[in-house]
Amino acid sequence: MPDPAPARPVDPLAELLIDRFHLDQAPDDACSLTYSEVAALASTGGLEQVIGRLVDDYAKLAAGYDLVIIVGSDFTGPTPGTELEFNAELAANFGAPALPVVGAAGMPSTRVPAAVAETARVLASQGCAVVATVVSRVAPGQVEQVRATAIQAQTLPR
Asked: How far apart, in whole angstroms, are the C-alpha atoms of residue 21 and residue 30?
């Protein structure tokens, strides 16, 4: 007898949101594709097929809710260098505004403005509306410096 298919990993963020807001939704219904599913689909049908599947899954979910929070990939997958572009393309296809999060953990405060500016540039290149940018995990003694330089970096002409 063959081994049963491995259980799909449960997304802790989906579980948290479903529990916190008492949503009548199964966690599996809140997530579309895992990294391995994206890789398999992309290898047979290309990224266009992946995007099509994600847009279809989003449309089905959005039909039943007044608001859908879309959480992009977390940049820990197999291709972190291209995930921002991919997330921006998806946001544009969903017609969703973006709220990018730039992780500053371990990053020198002098690098934060460049990371914020690059994120804004990539999102703008895909036509995404950015509602705000969050810079997370800033060292306590650097908050004011990072705040000032990050705001300036986001508003620089591109």
From this structure: 13
Residue listed under structure tokens 């020198």: 108
Distance CA 67, CA 150 (A): 29
pLDDT in tens, 79-129: 555 788 888 998 998 889 999 999 888 888 888 888 888 888 999 999 999
**Which of 52, 144, 43, 39 shows the shortest CA–CA distance to 83?**
39
Give the torsion through C-alpha atoms of 137, 141, 143, 149, to 10 deg: -110
pTM of structure: 0.76
Q: At residue 138, what are phi and psi to the nearest 5 degrees?
A: -80, 140
Integer Cα distance of 107 and 114 in angstroms? 11
